[in-house]
Structures are given as structure tokens and as C-alpha cells.
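FW: tagging you since you asked about this chain on Friday. Here's the raw sequence from the shared folder, copied in full. Didn't touch anything.
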Amino acid sequence: MKPVNQRVGKKQKKEVEQSPKDTFNSLIIESKNVQTVVLMLDSPEDDILLKACEAMYKFTEKGDENKLTLLTLGAIPKLTRLIAHEDKQIHKYATMTIGVMATHKDVVVQELATLCLASMSIDYTSKIDIFEKGGLGPLVSLLSSPDPDVQKNSIECISNLIQEVLVRAAFTEMTGIIPLLDLLSSEYPVIQHLTLQTLITMSRDSDSRTALFQNEGHENFLRVLDNPELTDLHTDILQVLANCLEEPDNVMYIRQSGALERFLLFVTSSIHPEAQKHAAKAIARSARNSEIRQILHQEGVEKALESLLGVNNDEIRAAAAEAISVMCEDEASKESFRAHGIFRLVPMLMSDNEELREAVNVAVANLTTDNSNNIDAVFDTKGVEPLVKSLHDSNDTIVASAATTITNLALQEHIRDSILSHGAMTMIVEPLRSNNTLVQSKAALVVASLACDVNGRTELRNAGGLEPLVELLHSDNNEVRRNACWAVLVCGKDEPTTHELCRLGALEFLQEINQSSSRRNNFSEVAVSRLLDHNASLKYILNGYLSSNDLIGDGFYDPGRPKPNEKIFTLEEFSNQGINQHRPILLINAKKTNEIQMAITSADDKVTEVLATASGRNVPSRLSSRDKSSSKGRSKGKKEEEKTKEGEMLHVKTEEEEKNKPWEAPYDVTFDSYIGEISRNILPLPSTRDQIVSLAFFVSDKMGGPVELEMLHNFFWELHIAELKHELTSNIIPIGKIEKGIYYHRALLFKALADRIGINCSLVRGDYNRAWNEVMLIDPPSQDGIEHLIPPKAYIVDLMHQVGHLLMVDSAEAAHYKVCTGCNHRHCKCCKQISYRRVHIEENK
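HL: got it, structure written out here
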């Protein structure tokens, strides 16, 4: 039988697991001996360390004797190490214990405790812990300790703590400023320097600055400045003053006490460059406030700054120039700097020191803004050349400032000529390509200020400056885009520049800008009109209208009304396209190409030679001189060989020239003859009305004569145009080639010829291949011979049906001419009105 415990399944007793031989069994330590607790601070176990720190914190709070006991047992160095412990609880109690020990009256305890707090305050977390556990109050009280080590440790800790805004506010409320100012008279330089660093930080806040002056802080500062043995403190003192002078009330206060005058005297008389530099920077920072600027101006700060410009130290001069830049916000200060300030600043525009160069350029830019007298002063001191050279500086601030000054100077015409003579338009191309938006903006303004001169536009165009200028129209920066539009507007004053801008896409970019409510500006809208004013082709393509002031010149072309968002090609781009089904491009061009001109010249030479031979005279010509030179002293074989070589070279040269020569619009010899014909026969007519009617008959006669509206479908003008396209192997048809033309052909020819002989007329594009010309005429005087001051009336010239008939613009006949297709449908309003009017006229006859 099995044992009982096996039968009933009795649970076997589990064997106790034995601990490893190399570990110590758990031991609970309870001790009331302070020496034992101090020894526990060296334990590697966190639990023991935590219990020891907590017990030690409670022990120190019981009285000063306990704090002294811990000091004598060497607890502070051990607690200091535990401040950086990873465990937050250990860190917390170690910090609190040292903070409590700092309040002990024993100097040794205070010294060690403040030393620990000073080292702890470097760490951000410890810094917050010290403040939250109330450590700032004891530290402020220890500033008045008789022991210099305690003072040094306390001020060092406070200097770290007040980096936080909340701590600075608490320090001011505790009136910590008073013992802090007292430390300025310490005999220990390290304490003085730590005090000034603390004051520099404290003076960043308005409340602290006010507290400094309420406690006579400026007197303490000036005493230090007046002491020649404390020159090592002058720099820090001036930084504190610079912060304090940002308060207008403080400036007024020290002015009333006479301290401001003493301060400015120190600026000019100090023999310490570092102190003078910081004094100038203090003025610059203070002068950013308009009230302070007025006070400083009244105290004659300009003379002090001009004096600093004469010091042989680049850092001081740069600081003085910076202060001058700020003071220039006040118009009275600008005037004060004219006599001596500009005279000293201009020679430093090209200094080897970049910092000085930058400060001076900014100062000169501010001095010349809205001040014509200072502009003349800069010009008189030979400032144009260094300013133009500064446009290629590697420092963007210098480039932007120089560009600003040049823009200011260009307001004077005689100075603008000088700027252009120094190659400013060539120099500005590089800034236009800059990646800095400020430089781009200022460079565009330079172009706008100089491009009003035709020489300036030509120089910019030849230097390749139009391309980067057009690219700036794409900028996302509003100011850059606005100034670029302004520059394009000014550049669009002559035809060559306008054509180049349009070729680069300026017109398309401007139209895109104008379509956006957030990107368009006043300059962009006017710039489009300006570009179109000098490009009649684009104006007619886009607007469908040319006024009497828009003259059609050689090279004008009309491809018809474009579709929405359709790219507008140039005439050269159209010439590269093959024949297609689109309507032809009508060309106006009476300008002879180079080849034709050369052929005419060659023919003239031949005629001259023939006439000379017939008359027996020896008239030199290009042909005869070439023949003579080739016949002297040469054999026949050499002549043939040389001719062969010359022919080969001429052939190669001709091919290269043909390949590289620019494209030219085809010369329309017929249209050219039209101009001569109307100049002889129509221009001499006595009245404008007679000229208009006669020109209408001339145009109609050249384009196939009058055509009845009802017979327009039998006027096969489309076939004629198709034949011309096939004959010319091009979509471009010179207007003189067309012998069967309808409304838009005739209207274009009429406008082109009228412009040549001075007849004012407009060209308007309509629908359904319609276009017409409008003229302004004054009615003839009445029968009584009295001329009435009647304004001119607008008429449409009939070139198709009743040729030469002048139709009142608002009449039914005019509407019929512009719209009706001659359908004679009973529901057609135009036909019904015209039919009724004709019947009415016939009945009255």
C-alpha cells in the first residue's frame, strides 16, 4: 500500500530557496546616531541614500547646532555629490538640506553651503529647486555678509538664478538691488565683476531698471566711471547704463541730475577704447525710443558721436556710426550731422573693416533719406564712386544700404548722371540676382530711380539686367514684387527696352499678378499699360483697340483675338511655324531688310560706275577699287588661285553669317509704295474730311473695291488668302499682298496708312471678322458763316459697302456695319432698322 499522504494527494512542503553565497541577507538599519547617517551618504544603494538625506534634512531644521554638527562631520561635500543624483527624491532632499544649512549664522557653514548652491545653480533643474524651496531669500540676505567668500558665492548663485524672468521679478520685490549696488564698492574685483554681470541681467527688465534709478544706481555707476583705477569695470558699467537708458523716465531723471552730461563727457574723454565703444552702443540702444532721441539731441549727443568718428579705432567708429544711424530717425539730428558727420563718414565707405563698412553704409543711407541737403553733401564729398563699388560687396547689408543711398542720390538729376557715368546699371545686375529679398528690393529701386534716363535703360539692357529684373516679378515677397513692377514701369519708356521686356515675358508675368487680388499693386497695373503703349501689336492683340495715339509702325502684326490663357507668340515665333488652318498673321512692314538695302546700294554703285564710264570720268567705287587692287603685279595663274581661295572663304563666311544673322520681318514693297502714293495724292488735300474719304476709296480700291452686304458671300476673299499663304509658304501675309480684303484687312490698312500721313483715327476689333476705324471730325460751319464752338463728333469710316461714307458712331448704320452679316432675315434688328431708314430717306427725297 502507498503511504497516506500519497493516497490523498497531500501537498509536499516546498524547500526554502537558499540565497547565493556571495550576497548579504536583507538588513533593516535603524539608527539615531548622526555619525552613522553621515556614513550612510556613501552607500551605493539608493534606498539607504534616500533615507539618509531625508533624515538629514529633518535634522538640520531642528536648529543651528545640528547644522554645525553636520558641517564638522563632513556632510556638505557628500551632499554636494548627491545633488547630481539621478533619483529625483535624493536630489530634492540633498538640495533642501544644503539650502537650510546656508541660513546658519556660522560663517564656515554659510561659506560651504553657498558654495554648494552656487555650483548647483548652474543646472536648470537645480536652479528651479533652489528658487521653489525658498533659497533666494537667504542668498539675498547673505549679500551683506562680512565674509567675502560668502558674498562671492551668494552673488554667483544669484547671478545664475536670475537668468529666469520669475526669479528676477522676485529679486526686485525683495529689494535685492540695494545690497547688490553696495557690492560695487567691494575691494575684491571678482565680487565687483559678478555684481555687474548680475546688474546687466537685472537691467533687462523695466521694473528692475526703475528700481536701479530709484536707489541712486546711476550715481554708483558714474562714480565707477570717474574712478581711473576701475577702468576694468567701465565696459560692464556702460552695458548696465545702456539698458537703463531705454527708459525715458530714467533718461529724464539723470538729465535733471546732471548725470547725462557727465556721461557724454566721459564718452568723448575716455582713454579706454572698449569703454567708448560700449558708450556709443549704449547711445544707439537708447536712441531707438523717440522721446530719448529728442533728449539726447538737446544734450548735443551728435558732437560726441562725431568726435568718436575721429578716433583711430574701427570698433569705436563702427559703434558711433551705428548710433548715428539710429539718431537719424530724428530730422533735427540729420541736419546736425551734415557739417562734420558726413565729411567723416564718406571716406570710410570703402574701409577694409567689414563691420565699419557696414555701419557707415547704413548711416549714410539713413542720413540721405528724405534730405536733399545731405544728398548734396554726400555728392560733394565724392561719395558716388564708393557707393557704386559697394554694390558688389559680399555683405548683403552693405549692398542694400548702398543701393538705398544711390536711390536717394538719384533724385537729383545732375547726381544721377554722375551715378550712371560710374557704371551703376552694370553694377546693379549682380544685386538683382541676389537670393536676399532685401537686396532684391533695394536693387529694383535703384533700377527704378536710374531707368528714367535713356542712357540708363540702354546700359541696363546691354548689361543683361532686364532678365533678372523680370524674374523678380515672380517673387513671393510683396515689397520685392512691388519694386520690380515699379522698375519695369520706368524701363518701359522706350521701344527697344519694352520689346526686350516683353520678349522675356514681363507682360505675361504682370498680367498674372494683376489677376491675383493679393499680389497685384498699383505699379503692376500701370506697368502693363506702359508696356502696351510701346508695343502696338500686343496692345491690339490683348485689348482689341488702338487709339489715335497708338501708331502702327513697321513690324506691327495682327494674329487675331487670342483664346483665353493662350500664349502670344512673337512675329519671329510665328514665322517658324508651318502653314496651318488658323487665320493669317497680317504684317505691316515698310522697313527694308539689310539684304535689300545692300542690293540697292550695290545697284547704285553699278549705276554710278556706268555713268562714270560713259562720261569718261574715273569715279572711285567699291567695285572698281577692288578690281584695281587685284590686277596689280600678279600673274594670271596666281589670280585664278587667289580667286578660288577667296571664293571658298567667302562661301564659308556667308554660311556663318546666314546662320547667325538675326531674323528680320519680310519687307512689304507694295505697302511701301502705298505710302508714297498717298503722300503725293492724299496728304495735300485741304481738309481732314477730304483726306479721310479719299483714303477710304484708296484702301477699298486696293482691297477689291466696294462689296454689297448681300453679295459678300460671293466675294471669295478666303480663297485669295489661302492662295497667298500657299504662295508665301507662311502664315504671315504682308498687308500689301492682299488684293481681296474684308473689314479687318481694310481697317488695319486704313489705320496703318492714316498714321503715316498724320490722320488721327482709331482701330477697333469686333466679332465675326469685323474691325472698323473711328475718326473725330468737326462739322462744317453753318450757312451764315458763323463758326460755332461745337466739339468734334465720332464717325466710323465705311470701307466695305458705301465706301467713304462716314457713319455716326451711335447710329443704326454704324451698328449695322459693325455687326450685321447681311442676312436680311425678318427677325434681324439691324436689317429691319437699316431697311426702314433707307425707305424713309427715299420717301423724303
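FW: Residues 225 and 266 are 8 Å apart (CA to CA).
HL: agreed, and The longest strand covers residues 771-777.
FW: great, closing this out.
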